[in-house]
Amino acid sequence: MRFRHPDGSTVHLAYCTNVHPAETLDGVLAQLRDHCEPVRRRLGRDRLGIGLWLAKDAAHALVTDPSALRGLRCELDRRGLEVVTLNGFPYEGFGAEEVKYRVYTPDWADPERLEHTTSLARVLAGLLPDDVTDGSISTLPLAWRTACDERRAQTARTALRTLAERLDALQELTGRSIRVALEPEPGCVVETTRDAIAPLTAIAHDRVGICVDTCHLATSFEDPHTALDDLARAGVPVVKSQLSAALHAEQPHLPEVREALAAFAEPRFLHQTRTSTAAGLRGTDDLDEALSGDALPDAGPWRAHFHVPLHAAPAAPLTSTLPVLKSVLTRLVGGPHPLTRHLEVETYTWQALPPELRPRGRTQLADGIAAELTLARDLLTDLGLKELP
Questions:
Q1: Which in 154, 174, 256, 305 has the greatest CB count within 10 A?
Q2: Above pLDDT 90, what percent of the chain?
């Protein structure tokens, strides 16, 4: 979906396909048929943006076979779909029964991460619509915190500089400008936007910036205005933003609140949980750990890294951090010029919701994704953007 900003520029809105498990190119093509096109039809649009997730094997197939890449591009066109951004965070296995810590490997100190992201950039340059020259790729925020000493941190920074040089060369070759965006996430070396400033200014290349995920920002209790002001002062570009909402519990000391939270503790993904105290941010790596005994102080609100549907906040006594998303979006695109032109709805946890909230089959999932995009569209038009055909 495309929107005209009051300054005349185009802002792109997509939804991320990491909600649909697929490891191979055939699986990606099936996603387009079974999920993405039905969502577009529900929205009544001739064109729908998707933030494509390409696992290692799918990316390799596309980058090594020009005919396969042309075939994917033709299939996108045929189904009324377009791609300006990729989710390069998960490497493989994101549809596995247990993902947890595995999503953080390989990290940016491992050569596989550089090679995979280079492949994604080459693929994206071939998938961009004819009238679009700028693409973006969100990626792992360097590494999970326990896997990164100073030697590996330096290796990671060197790899990102190498990637930036490759992206420069790719633009010279193709005329397409691809940028990569570190996506701060709780528990990682770069957990917050502030954590991103030092490594990104050390890399010092405009090809490498930040992806502001509004669920992650909220989970870490970051103030949106402070976070974006700090990035602007440091000259760190917001390459893209993922529109997502975290799980919020206002009174986690109450038994009924803990019972409601326990329904969201599930075995597939990590749900890092945080609370803000007078001594600073405290947290656990997963929600079930937070609910065990006194692992996490409960005098103040808790927030958990669980991407809940934007249009459907959990039932009381829980809620979501949708107000944080709205505040971030207002700053990103509500001013005289957009701070980013790539927005991506990223609720990948539909099948991890408590059983009574999960969509039953493709039809309900498509309905839910379309409802999220409708909400995002309404937020953008309320900010003065005009939806384009």
A1: 305
A2: 98
Neighbours of 340 (CB within 10 A): 20
Distance CA 135, CA 170 (A): 12
Spatial distance between the Cα atoms of 112 and 105, rounded to a whole number of angstroms:
9
Helix/strand/coil for 72:
helix
pLDDT digits (tens, 9 = 90+) for 184-193: 999 999 999 9
The structure tokens listed for 376 are 């995002």
Coil, strand or helix at 245:
strand
CA 54 to chain centre: 13
Q: Read off the pTM.
A: 0.97
Q: Which long-range contacts (CB under 8 A, 24 or more apart) does 333-339 make?
A: 333/5, 333/11, 333/380, 333/383, 333/385, 334/383, 334/384, 336/6, 336/7, 337/5, 337/7, 337/9, 338/5, 338/7, 338/9, 338/11, 339/228, 339/232, 339/238
Pull the structure tokens for residue 370.
């379309």
Give tens-digit pLDDT for 108-145.
999 999 999 999 999 999 999 999 999 999 999 999 99
